[in-house]
Amino acid sequence: MSSELHKATRGLRWAIGLSGGVTLVAGLIILLWPGKSAFFLTAIIAVYAILAGLISFGVAFFAPGRRGWVRAGYIALGVLFIIAGIAAFFNLAPVTAWLAITVAIILGATWIAEGIVALSTAGDSSSRGITIFFSIVSILAGITLILTPLWSAFVLWIFVGASLVAFGILQIVRAITFGRDTRRSAESDADQWTASPVS
């Protein structure tokens, strides 16, 4: 039983450690090469778009019950996805900038809306001062994102990289320390079993 527990614990440690290592490497790549890593992410999105287009074609021609306008819709969707994916591959820099600006503007609008909603409910909050402070910060941050979307997207990308590095290190530390309590408990139980008198 203890051997099976040891094998399971060892497997989990390896899984957690491998996940932490991949996360750490991804974060370092973003921090060291923010531009190239952003291009790589855009390329992944382009591949996904092409695959989605091919899947739409497959659904249109091979799925049962797809006739008439439904089939035409899937074909049109597949064509759009494939064209968008190929165009993104041949224009990685402008597409990456466009994605960054779009994400920054959407996030900025979301933060502004969140700040306005929080500010409108500040009167009913038990911690009114903190709510007002949070609302103002959220609105100002949203305005900053909308006014300077490309620069803000770059800062957010660096923050994502730093977060991945921190999370990866935590996972690696967790993998190293994982299972120690279980192993000590098993060893203690074994010692007690050995030391107990046999009736």
Strand residue percentage: under 5%
How much helix, percentage-wise, in residues? over 70%
Please identify the structural class as seen in this structure: mainly alpha
Coarse shape = extended
> What's the oligomerization state?
single chain
Count, helices: 7
Q: Strand-and-helix sequence, N→C? A: HHHHHHH
Low-confidence stretches: none
Number of domains: 1
Give an overview of the whole structure.
The structure is a single chain. By secondary structure, the chain is an all-alpha fold. 17% of the residues are buried. It has helices at residues 2-32, 34-62, 69-90, 92-120, 128-147, 149-177, 180-195. The model has no long low-confidence stretch (mean pLDDT 83). It starts with a helix and ends with a helix. The protein is extended and about 60 Å long. The protein has one domain (18-175). The longest helix is centred in the N-terminal third of the chain and has 31 residues, at 2-32.
